[in-house]
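Protocol step 4 of 5: obtain the predicted structure for the target chain.
Materials: sequence only (see below). No template structures provided, no constraints applied. The aim of this step is simply to have a reference model before the mutagenesis design in step 5. Sequence pasted as it appears in the construct record:
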Amino acid sequence: MNIWKISIRNFRFKPLYTLLGILILSVSIALLVGIQQLDKSFKQQLDNNLGDIDMVVGAKGSPLQLVLASVLHVDNPTGNISFKEAKSLIKNPMIEKGVPISYGDNYKGYRIVGTTQDFPKLYNADLYEGRYVQKSMEVVLGSTVAEAIGLQVGDSFQSSHGLAETGGHDHDEPLTIVGIYKPTHKVMDRLIITGLETVWDAHHHADESVVDGHVTNSEREITSMLVSFRNPMALLTIPRSINENTNMQAALPKFELERLYQFTGVGVKTITWIAYAILIISCITIFISLYRMVRDRAFDLALMRSYGANRLQLVKMVAYEGFLIASMAFVIGVLLSQIGVYFILEMITDQYKQRMPLLLGPIELLQTAGLVALMVLSSICLAIYPILKMNISKILSYEK
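Step 4 output (structure tokens):
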């Protein structure tokens, strides 16, 4: 007696209940796997974008806005600060280095960041081709920028004022591409890197003098300073000192992004609990489907027992059908989650110019598979109760 073939036939006996069980279970699996994957990708991307940045110093305002604008480059800056005053901070022996950044222009939505040669070192970024910036009006493209705009080393373009892709006026002097960075899968990939002089020269005003093609102003300004500490003690003293004794503010990226992650974590937990609820409902549906199969085919099962089949074989038949439904639902659910996550990440890429890696951890998959298997096993154990209590003679005599 081939129990597996009988299970396949039973699988098609009630197609509506079977398809309903597969559909609901697939949706719950897709939600569980998808939200875990997005959560993991989002958190890893935040951690990667921090690089070696321990503190951000900028204009007074929202510390979270300062971090989002200066570290993740997804918000507007809180204002400008004095370059001279910011440089005086890094003389502190507890500070390893400070990297100034200044921005306010874009090209096709990609931010142009004026900084020093230490900026790519924060993200371990290396050149793919070309060279680093050596003079004003030279730029190096991040890998995502180079791929998106289709320009090569040696090409030129005109930047637009402001951070929005549309609405700003174009600057007169073109920028020349001298290099392209290798992919880092960090914020570096979607930035156009240049020197501080480029930003200052592009934004010089009437009250500033120009000597040898460069702006000369004793009070040059930058957007923020990205700081790395030498030791953990600096974390306890330097930010408070800056906030209390200067007209600048110090924000700690790890602390602020952890707060942001806690806010977004509420939505993640809500969707996860919804997925668990759907999973429970789907397992109840599977139980009802299996239980109805056992009750509706009681005569056939009793007849099989009379022809020599034992209880274990009948239990196997029900178990095979239950796990077949679970297996199909798991495969469909994972595929649905990947399709959904792909479109969500593409939407993030279009809006924030940031390509996030598609992470699918085997641990999360195994945990979800184990949970589904446990729930389906519970449904099977409940559904086989009539088989264990089966009265063969009574069922056969009643049916006759």
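Step 4 remarks: Residues 55-251 form one domain. Residues 205-215 have pLDDT under 50 and may be disordered.
Proceed to step 5.
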